[in-house]
Amino acid sequence: MKHTTHTFQWRFKSIKIYLALLISLISMVFNACKKDIHSIESSSALSIDLLATGKPNIILIIGDDVGYDIPTFNGGESYETPNLDFMAFNGVYFPNCFAMPDGPPARIELMTGKYSCRNFTEARHLNPEDKTIGNMLRDAGYSTGYVGKWHLDGGDTSIKNHGFDKYLVFMPYNPKTTGYDQWYRRYKNPLLYQNGAYLPDSVVEGKYSEDLYNTYINNFIDSNKSKPFFLIYSCNLVQHPWSPTPDDPDFANWDASGDERSREDVKYFPGMVKYMDKMIGKLMDKISETGLTSKTVVMFTSDNGTVPGIKSVYKGDTVRGGKLDTKRTSINVPLAVYGPGNVVSGIMDTSIIDMTDFLTSFAGIAKIPVPTTWGKLDGKTFNDNLQGNIVATKQKSYYYTFWPTDFDAPNNTTSFIFDYNYKLYDSAHGGQFYNIRLDVNEKNPIDDDDLTNAERKIKSSFNAILKKGYSIAGY
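The structure assignment produced for this chain is given below.
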């Protein structure tokens, strides 16, 4: 039950590290560590330089279908997420982080730092010529690893060419070409791929994918204790099939053959969330036990919102997941960043973050230049936010997406753009314009005749961005 006391163990370990690294600032940091979610201010004036002893390790954890309504730190009330809460309460979290309505294009944006209008050609396929976060950090001297759901096609060749030397993954190829779909042996007796081949059945029989990932992650960390590393842990959890975890008595007799969706049950979903959080706790414990706490930045986010089959309590209200929709329930995802000595603590609620921002932000964390020979990158860095230096000119003032809505027909797309107050859809989908601050559920589009002069200017500027995206895509 080690993970259940993780928060308290880490609190004291972190304070010791702060004493060594930031003796002159211990009072401020200690107080920040003890703050409750409801009392943390929007930002901290504290500025912390990255470790003078070298580049920090970077770990990016990607949940699958984990919307903003799931973690407790974000306002969720239906699930247990103590380790995610610890990361958020003792680090930075961004309430306004947005992915895309579906995972494949969101993951490609995250990897490349480019909007889908620049590089999306086929679902679950990362173009061989595209460079990624992995390439950038490997070229900068990082050891690189990828563990979990790949979902980007190409197998061993693609994973390595896109910057990851070590890997243990699920879905190494496009299911459309291999015959294996994403539901096949996802959790129990998992179909996992390593070093150009699937693990033998004898190795995975009776095992759970996340446990095998954890073992691989521990070995990867042990092998890279003396040099900087970059690791992506792309959880299988919490996507379908909703099935028992090893902590559930039903796990032992669960039939993991064939398509488990015919047997899945939503009653297992809370346990799946809890197990995901447990695995994150184990990873954090490993970092602590290895003495890497002060040398590591850990992030958690998700590829899209929660699926419609899930109802959760969020800040007192019942919320239905909205994956594959275009509203907040589909695209608003958690983002928590933890790294004592490297990251301040607080809520960054004045910053809009999207998936293209991770590559540029990781360049800042690693103290390396943003690549200039990879074509136009669309991300802005949020590393300044992590250091407590919020510069208005460096903040994104809007969220834009170019979403291929039909995997088999790339020209079938939906685009929209919004800021804190207004949202506009492309003309192909009605060109509807909303005041999303007053009309969160987008029930009352504003007619052109009813626009104020200020609203006309906003709508016009939004339209120009949408048209530019379609032009870049060649439509």
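Interim note for the steering committee: Residues 269-289 form the longest helix (21 residues). The CA atoms of residues 426 and 463 lie 7 Å apart.
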